């Protein structure tokens, strides 16, 4: 044991005494490799859990996005009665594991990692990483409405915290290590390395940008993406949604409308989610029963609106193409953003384990799809032939604004959809949505600080 400590201390001294380039090449590559491998392991765990619980036991195959295989999924529930039981059972077992082994793994995980950056970058326990991975795979695999990014962010942020602890890094270096862990984990699982790197520098503040994490984030996020893609492929998550789109100034009024609506829905998402968290704390019952009840309610909702189950990326994929969007009933397209907000709040807000970034992207996708569908039905002029452009920019605006990371999310969604051609119009949409949200005190990540020098203070209204 003493030899191991001396060895670790020697490595720590070497890294601490290294120059900027050598230090962050070593740390960045190390965190990136773990982020990429962690994303692979979690993805496979989530995939196989879903196939067994929903697929084998429930007889229902969830539709998948193009990058996940592009499976159209099942058209109905052959064993409808099993779906609420599966969502409840998965939430129950997941919550029990968290309560017994690592209570801090409760919820979406990204806030815990952000808080570690600000308060103590050495504080994330190694046990949390494993518990988060297993519990989130159970939650999402059983049909809970949650995203895959929270667990992967906590895996790589946890490794950054471990390095800060074992190598006795300075606090400033420890904060950067955890920040780039967050960004690289999210960037890897979504196949969005540039967005992940920018996210590392922006996600910890509401109205600021940590330039110290940006360049190390390039190294870490690029490494994580290389590892993840080498094993599971480099295709964009949603394929190439609008590869032939060319910016047309005629679309600008529609981009403005999408920005306003996306900001309103993003605001509702954050308010509903944290209202559910607050209500759950006041209700009777322990931390195992409450997520199970939330899971049961999600399963019952899914009998009427199956699109709320699991991550929902396959349904976002369907919403991006005219042919598949027209197959979804109009009322579901309109209601789905709000149903997904409720389902995510019931899944994660009650204490379940999973991310909130992914559902935010799906919510935004159906905001864009609903606007396009209603405009198409009304015969309004100036809309594109297909919904893809509206879907992509609404994805960016809805979550980018409420996460206070507009640039990072805009880049990430462009990478996830292969749709960089929409960026000129998307800047209008995201800019409007972010300016509207910035006039409020709302953020989907409560652990964010106002800026690098002060605690959060709401801006003048």
Automatic annotation (TrEMBL):
Membrane topology of the entry: Multi-pass membrane protein
Major location (coarse): membrane
Stored Gene3D superfamilies: Clc chloride channel
Membrane-crossing segments per the record: 24-45, 80-99, 176-201, 213-232, 252-270, 291-313, 325-343, 355-375, 387-413, 420-437
Gene Ontology cellular component list: chloride channel complex
Cellular compartments annotated: Membrane
Any GO MF annotation of the entry: chloride channel activity
Database matches in Pfam families: Voltage_CLC
Keywords recorded for this protein, A-Z: Chloride, Chloride channel, Ion channel, Ion transport, Membrane, Transmembrane, Transmembrane helix, Transport
CDD domains named among the record's database cross-references: Voltage_gated_ClC (cd00400)
Transmembrane keyword on record: yes
Source domain of life: Bacteria
Protein name as it appears in the record: Chloride channel protein
Naturally occurring in which organism (per UniProt): Mycolicibacterium arabiense
């Amino acid at each position: 044991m003493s030899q191991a400590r001396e060895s670790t201390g020697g490595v720590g001294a070497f890294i601490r005494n290294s120059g900027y380039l050598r230090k962050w090449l070593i740390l960045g590559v190390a965190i990136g490799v773990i982020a990429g491998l962690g994303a692979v392991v979690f993805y496979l765990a989530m995939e196989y859990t879903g196939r067994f619980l929903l697929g084998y036991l429930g007889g229902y195959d969830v539709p998948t996005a193009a990058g996940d295989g592009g499976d159209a999924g099942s058209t109905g529930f052959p064993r409808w009665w099993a779906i609420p039981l599966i969502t409840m059972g998965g939430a129950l077992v997941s919550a029990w594991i968290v309560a017994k082994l690592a209570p801090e793994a409760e919820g979406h995980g990204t806030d815990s990692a952000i808080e570690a950056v600000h308060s103590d970058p050495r504080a994330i326990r190694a046990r949390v990483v494993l518990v988060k991975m297993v519990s989130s795979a159970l939650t999402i695999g059983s049909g809970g409405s949650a995203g895959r990014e929270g667990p992967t962010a906590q895996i790589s942020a946890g490794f950054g915290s471990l390095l800060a602890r074992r190598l006795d890094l300075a606090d400033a270096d420890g904060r950067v290590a955890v920040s780039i862990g967050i960004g690289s984990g999210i960037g890897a699982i979504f196949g969005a390395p540039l967005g992940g790197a920018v996210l590392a520098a922006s996600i910890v503040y509401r109205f600021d940008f940590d330039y110290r994490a940006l360049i190390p984030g390039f190294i870490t996020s690029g490494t994580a993406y290389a590892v993840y893609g080498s094993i599971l492929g480099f295709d964009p998550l949603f394929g190439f949604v609008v590869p032939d789109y060319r910016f047309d100034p005629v679309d600008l009024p529609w981009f403005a409308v999408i920005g306003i609506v996306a900001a309103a829905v993003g605001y509702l998402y954050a308010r509903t989610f944290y209202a559910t968290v607050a209500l759950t704390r006041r209700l009777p019952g322990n931390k195992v029963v409450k997520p199970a009840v939330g899971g049961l309610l999600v399963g019952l909702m899914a009998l009427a609106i199956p699109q709320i189950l699991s991550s929902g990326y396959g349904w976002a994929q369907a919403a991006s193409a005219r042919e598949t969007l027209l197959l979804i009933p109009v009322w579901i397209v309109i209601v789905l953003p709000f149903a997904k907000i409720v389902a995510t709040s019931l899944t994660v807000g009650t204490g379940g384990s999973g991310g909130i970034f992914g559902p935010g992207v799906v919510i935004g996708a159906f905001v864009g799809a609903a606007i396009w569908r209603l405009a198409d039905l009304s015969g309004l002029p100036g809309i594109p032939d297909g919904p893809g452009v509206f879907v992509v920019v609404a994805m960016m605006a809805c979550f980018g604004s409420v996460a206070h990371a507009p640039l990072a999310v805009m880049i990430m969604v462009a990478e996830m959809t292969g749709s960089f051609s929409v960026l000129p119009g998307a800047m209008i949409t995201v800019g409007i949505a972010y300016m509207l949200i910035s006039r409020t005190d709302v953020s989907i990540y409560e652990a964010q600080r106002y800026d690098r020098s002060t605690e959060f203070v709401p801006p003048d209204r």
